[in-house]
Amino acid sequence: MLETVLGAPTGASVVTDNHTAAPPVLSAAAQAPAVRIVTYNIHTCVGVDRRYDPDRIVEVLREINADIACLQEVGARRSVGRPADQWAYLGEATGCRVILGAGIRDHRRRFGNAILSRVPVLFARSLDLTVADYEPRSAIDADLLLGHRVLRVIATHLGLRVGERRLQANRLMTALSENPMTHRRKPDAVLLMGDLNEWRGRSGAIRVFDRRLGPSAAGRTFPSWLPVLALDRIYADGPAVLRDVCVYRTPLARLASDHLPLVGSLSWGERDLRRREQPKPAGRRARLFADPLASGNRSSAPGATRLL
After folding, report:
1. Helix, coil or strand: residue 194
2. Is residue 299 one of the residues assigned to a domain?
3. CA 132 to CA 149: how far, in whole Å?
4. Cβ atoms within 10 A of the Cβ of 253, count?
5. Could you give phi then psi for residue 169, rounded to 5 degrees?
């Protein structure tokens, strides 16, 4: 099942300084605003201290201040005195539009993926990645509007077994290769983000993704208190350039979930900015890995209006 929750448009903030000299002339690529992105397995808001506390996840998300956040293990549970529906709560607390896909259900809870977005949502669907005899898995396949461009975002959480992940990766690549639906615009770029559960380097499911999308951006994100495994990854395909990728390490992030967030920024190459009407994928993709994460003033969104 896939439901969308659309929020109000984002607000804006103005930053001033005391410099009086004329600003330098910037290239088109330098002037284009970057989009801040993050993939984060929030472990149903249960921290490493085994305490259920959605407010800690909200605080981490506010610190990161992403325009697009792909979350895994977002849940709903029976709770007294704490927010039970994490999709609704995270949308309200961050002021973002929410796209949600519930994958696993039992008599006590349900959990799955979510995309929090500060930009308009054009289209969203759920991709079933469930493999027989294993727990249900899914992905969210959404089109987001960035100015005049369409960014296709796939948020996923793959399974725990090697063969399961390979089948799931092949299904995602099949979905990416399909001809666009008549009511769906061809994307200008593609982002695939999530917890891929692949700890064996560039083998298994990673090899499938690398052949289609190129090398991923990754960092050691698990376990959060002593990260040794790069389970969370970001792929970018098309003229969009992925930069400033790093693992977000703060004391609160180490506590709030068993995964650390993987953060980056997405910008557009010179060629695409000069050919705005019909941008084509650039011949090569650049990525810069930086640590620590740079902070800055960004726009924030007001409260969300939910349409279920």
Report:
1. strand
2. no
3. 38
4. 22
5. -65, -40
> Looking at the predicted structure, is the pLDDT value of residue 181 above 90?
no
Domain with 76, as residue range(s), is 2-7+34-289
The answer as to whether 20 is a domain residue is: no
Q: How many Cα atoms sit within 13 Å of 101 on the Cβ side?
A: 24
Give CA separation, 225 vs 32, 195, 258, in Å: 36, 17, 7
Contacts of 93 (CB under 8 A, 6+ apart): 54, 58, 61, 62
What mean pLDDT do residues 42-56 have? 95
Instruction: Give the CATH number of the domain where residue 266 resides.
Output: 3.60.10.10
Weakest-pLDDT range from 55-69, 78-92, 148-162: 78-92
Query: 138 in helix, strand or coil?
Result: strand
| Span 276-283, average pLDDT | 42
Examine residue 300 and state whether it is found in any structural domain, yes or no.
Answer: no
Closest CA to 172 of 208, 221, 202: 208
